[in-house]
């Protein structure tokens, strides 16, 4: 699983932030390793604290084999809080997406199995 971290100009942390984010994503989503090919993480400063809102945003997008991309986002006062909230949302979204691919007997459905099409 490839993890790419993009931080906005107003987000501090540099390479250590990117390394931390990559490790957290790989650890938390390790069970989806065969399913997810790439995760992109976008960390930005939304400058909303001036208006009483939250100041940091994290957007995560996954690319999964044979599926449409999934994207989630979260906002919080701190980068780590926004990141962790988005990672939790992404974990739930991947669980849901995989469940849709499986039937009650834990087999691939005919809608996702290109192997089944080639066997016929």
From TrEMBL:
Coiled coil: 73-104
Keyword Zinc-finger: no
UniProt keyword list: Coiled coil
The UniProt record lists the keyword 4Fe-4S: no
Protein name, as recorded: Ribosome-associated translation inhibitor RaiA
Organism from which the protein derives: Comamonas odontotermitis
Lineage, opening ranks: Bacteria, Pseudomonadati, Pseudomonadota, Betaproteobacteria, Burkholderiales
